[in-house]
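User: I'll paste a sequence; please echo it back and then give the predicted structure.

Assistant: Echoing your sequence first, then the prediction.
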Amino acid sequence: MRLTKYGHACVRIDGPDGAVVIDPGTYSEPVSFDGVSAVLVTHEHADHVDRDLLRAARDRDPALTVYTHPQLAAELGDGVRAVSPGEVFTAAGFTVRAVGGEHAEIIDGLPGCANIGFVVNGVYHPGDSLFVPSEPVETLLIPAAGPWLKIGDAIRFARAVRPRHTFPIHDGVLNDLGLHQFDAWLGDEDGIGYARIPLGESISL
Protein backbone atom coordinates (compact mmCIF):
# COMPACT_ATOMS: atom_id res chain seq x y z
CA MET A 1 0.00 0.00 0.00
CA ARG A 2 1.36 3.43 -0.94
CA LEU A 3 0.41 6.68 0.81
CA THR A 4 0.98 10.01 -1.01
CA LYS A 5 0.67 13.43 0.63
CA TYR A 6 -0.92 16.19 -1.42
CA GLY A 7 -1.82 19.74 -0.42
CA HIS A 8 -3.31 20.45 3.00
CA ALA A 9 -5.74 17.67 3.98
CA CYS A 10 -5.50 15.59 0.80
CA VAL A 11 -3.91 12.16 0.64
CA ARG A 12 -4.03 9.34 -1.84
CA ILE A 13 -3.78 5.64 -1.03
CA ASP A 14 -2.78 3.16 -3.75
CA GLY A 15 -3.21 -0.56 -3.33
CA PRO A 16 -3.10 -3.68 -5.50
CA ASP A 17 -6.73 -3.29 -6.60
CA GLY A 18 -7.02 0.48 -7.07
CA ALA A 19 -6.55 3.91 -5.53
CA VAL A 20 -8.60 6.30 -3.42
CA VAL A 21 -8.11 10.00 -2.79
CA ILE A 22 -9.33 11.54 0.47
CA ASP A 23 -10.36 15.19 0.87
CA PRO A 24 -9.14 16.72 -2.40
CA GLY A 25 -9.89 20.34 -1.54
CA THR A 26 -9.02 23.75 -2.90
CA TYR A 27 -5.44 23.55 -1.59
CA SER A 28 -4.91 20.20 -3.34
CA GLU A 29 -3.41 19.25 -6.68
CA PRO A 30 -5.56 17.98 -9.60
CA VAL A 31 -3.02 15.18 -10.17
CA SER A 32 -4.29 13.56 -6.97
CA PHE A 33 -7.31 12.33 -8.99
CA ASP A 34 -5.26 10.61 -11.71
CA GLY A 35 -6.22 6.95 -11.96
CA VAL A 36 -8.31 6.80 -8.79
CA SER A 37 -11.59 4.91 -8.73
CA ALA A 38 -12.98 6.31 -5.48
CA VAL A 39 -13.06 9.62 -3.62
CA LEU A 40 -13.70 9.93 0.11
CA VAL A 41 -14.87 13.30 1.44
CA THR A 42 -15.06 13.93 5.18
CA HIS A 43 -17.14 17.13 5.06
CA GLU A 44 -18.34 20.10 3.06
CA HIS A 45 -15.64 22.74 3.64
CA ALA A 46 -13.79 23.87 0.54
CA ASP A 47 -10.36 22.95 1.87
CA HIS A 48 -11.61 19.34 1.93
CA VAL A 49 -13.65 19.20 -1.27
CA ASP A 50 -13.03 21.29 -4.38
CA ARG A 51 -16.35 20.87 -6.13
CA ASP A 52 -15.01 22.07 -9.49
CA LEU A 53 -12.11 19.60 -9.40
CA LEU A 54 -14.46 16.83 -8.32
CA ARG A 55 -16.94 17.63 -11.08
CA ALA A 56 -14.16 17.64 -13.69
CA ALA A 57 -12.84 14.29 -12.43
CA ARG A 58 -16.32 12.75 -12.60
CA ASP A 59 -16.81 14.13 -16.12
CA ARG A 60 -13.57 12.42 -17.19
CA ASP A 61 -14.54 9.18 -15.47
CA PRO A 62 -18.28 8.67 -14.93
CA ALA A 63 -17.49 5.45 -13.02
CA LEU A 64 -15.67 7.42 -10.30
CA THR A 65 -17.49 6.79 -7.01
CA VAL A 66 -17.68 9.42 -4.28
CA TYR A 67 -18.41 8.56 -0.64
CA THR A 68 -19.39 11.13 1.96
CA HIS A 69 -21.91 11.82 4.71
CA PRO A 70 -25.62 11.94 3.78
CA GLN A 71 -26.06 15.73 3.83
CA LEU A 72 -23.17 16.41 1.46
CA ALA A 73 -24.07 13.42 -0.72
CA ALA A 74 -27.49 14.95 -1.31
CA GLU A 75 -25.86 18.25 -2.35
CA LEU A 76 -23.35 16.64 -4.72
CA GLY A 77 -26.05 14.70 -6.54
CA ASP A 78 -26.17 11.52 -8.58
CA GLY A 79 -23.38 9.00 -8.31
CA VAL A 80 -22.44 10.00 -4.78
CA ARG A 81 -22.91 7.36 -2.11
CA ALA A 82 -23.99 8.41 1.37
CA VAL A 83 -22.28 6.63 4.26
CA SER A 84 -22.90 6.99 7.97
CA PRO A 85 -20.71 6.49 11.05
CA GLY A 86 -20.24 2.81 11.78
CA GLU A 87 -20.81 1.75 8.19
CA VAL A 88 -18.23 -0.51 6.55
CA PHE A 89 -17.87 -0.56 2.76
CA THR A 90 -15.40 -1.43 0.02
CA ALA A 91 -13.83 1.27 -2.17
CA ALA A 92 -11.16 0.59 -4.79
CA GLY A 93 -10.45 -2.74 -3.12
CA PHE A 94 -9.96 -1.21 0.32
CA THR A 95 -12.07 -1.96 3.38
CA VAL A 96 -13.29 1.39 4.73
CA ARG A 97 -15.06 2.19 7.98
CA ALA A 98 -16.81 5.54 8.46
CA VAL A 99 -16.36 6.89 12.00
CA GLY A 100 -17.09 10.01 14.04
CA GLY A 101 -19.88 12.25 12.83
CA GLU A 102 -19.25 15.85 13.90
CA HIS A 103 -16.80 18.60 12.97
CA ALA A 104 -14.68 19.80 15.90
CA GLU A 105 -16.06 22.92 17.55
CA ILE A 106 -14.33 26.24 16.91
CA ILE A 107 -16.43 28.35 19.30
CA ASP A 108 -20.07 28.65 20.40
CA GLY A 109 -21.05 25.40 18.69
CA LEU A 110 -19.67 26.52 15.32
CA PRO A 111 -19.30 25.33 12.63
CA GLY A 112 -21.86 22.70 13.62
CA CYS A 113 -21.58 20.56 10.50
CA ALA A 114 -21.26 16.84 9.89
CA ASN A 115 -17.81 15.29 9.53
CA ILE A 116 -17.02 11.63 9.08
CA GLY A 117 -13.58 10.14 9.36
CA PHE A 118 -12.43 7.18 7.29
CA VAL A 119 -10.33 4.20 8.41
CA VAL A 120 -8.94 2.72 5.19
CA ASN A 121 -7.17 -0.60 5.75
CA GLY A 122 -5.87 0.74 9.06
CA VAL A 123 -5.09 4.28 7.82
CA TYR A 124 -7.22 6.85 9.66
CA HIS A 125 -8.13 10.23 8.14
CA PRO A 126 -10.26 12.11 10.71
CA GLY A 127 -11.14 15.15 8.59
CA ASP A 128 -11.75 18.11 10.92
CA SER A 129 -12.26 16.11 14.08
CA LEU A 130 -10.36 14.48 16.90
CA PHE A 131 -12.63 11.45 17.14
CA VAL A 132 -10.91 8.36 18.54
CA PRO A 133 -12.11 5.17 16.79
CA SER A 134 -12.85 2.06 18.79
CA GLU A 135 -10.75 -0.15 16.50
CA PRO A 136 -6.93 -0.15 16.42
CA VAL A 137 -5.36 2.32 13.99
CA GLU A 138 -2.10 1.44 12.29
CA THR A 139 -1.49 4.85 10.67
CA LEU A 140 -2.90 8.17 11.90
CA LEU A 141 -3.14 11.19 9.60
CA ILE A 142 -3.07 13.89 12.25
CA PRO A 143 -4.40 17.43 11.72
CA ALA A 144 -1.63 19.97 12.37
CA ALA A 145 -3.43 23.33 12.27
CA GLY A 146 -6.86 24.91 12.15
CA PRO A 147 -9.07 27.37 14.05
CA TRP A 148 -10.39 24.41 16.05
CA LEU A 149 -7.00 22.95 16.99
CA LYS A 150 -3.94 23.60 19.14
CA ILE A 151 -0.80 21.50 19.47
CA GLY A 152 -1.88 20.15 22.85
CA ASP A 153 -5.09 18.82 21.27
CA ALA A 154 -3.10 17.03 18.58
CA ILE A 155 -0.77 15.46 21.13
CA ARG A 156 -3.66 14.21 23.26
CA PHE A 157 -5.33 12.85 20.12
CA ALA A 158 -2.23 10.90 19.11
CA ARG A 159 -1.82 9.55 22.63
CA ALA A 160 -5.44 8.35 22.64
CA VAL A 161 -5.23 6.68 19.22
CA ARG A 162 -1.75 5.15 19.80
CA PRO A 163 -0.94 4.43 16.13
CA ARG A 164 2.19 2.75 14.88
CA HIS A 165 2.77 5.56 12.37
CA THR A 166 1.67 9.21 12.47
CA PHE A 167 1.85 11.67 9.57
CA PRO A 168 0.61 15.29 9.57
CA ILE A 169 -2.16 16.65 7.38
CA HIS A 170 -4.26 19.84 7.46
CA ASP A 171 -1.07 21.89 7.46
CA GLY A 172 -1.56 24.09 4.38
CA VAL A 173 -2.00 27.23 6.48
CA LEU A 174 1.34 26.85 8.30
CA ASN A 175 4.54 28.57 7.23
CA ASP A 176 7.92 26.88 7.60
CA LEU A 177 8.22 27.99 11.23
CA GLY A 178 4.81 26.53 12.08
CA LEU A 179 5.62 23.25 10.34
CA HIS A 180 8.90 23.01 12.23
CA GLN A 181 7.20 23.74 15.56
CA PHE A 182 4.53 21.09 15.03
CA ASP A 183 7.12 18.53 13.93
CA ALA A 184 9.26 19.27 17.00
CA TRP A 185 6.40 18.78 19.45
CA LEU A 186 5.00 15.63 17.85
CA GLY A 187 8.46 14.25 17.20
CA ASP A 188 9.11 14.27 20.95
CA GLU A 189 6.16 11.95 21.57
CA ASP A 190 7.17 8.36 22.16
CA GLY A 191 5.23 5.46 20.70
CA ILE A 192 3.42 7.20 17.82
CA GLY A 193 6.04 6.93 15.06
CA TYR A 194 5.77 10.55 13.94
CA ALA A 195 7.27 11.66 10.60
CA ARG A 196 6.43 14.12 7.84
CA ILE A 197 5.78 13.07 4.24
CA PRO A 198 7.04 15.84 1.92
CA LEU A 199 4.39 17.32 -0.34
CA GLY A 200 3.81 15.14 -3.41
CA GLU A 201 5.95 12.30 -2.12
CA SER A 202 4.93 8.78 -1.11
CA ILE A 203 5.75 6.15 1.46
CA SER A 204 5.01 2.43 1.54
CA LEU A 205 2.95 1.02 4.39
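The chain has a mean pLDDT of 97. The longest helix spans residues 176-187.
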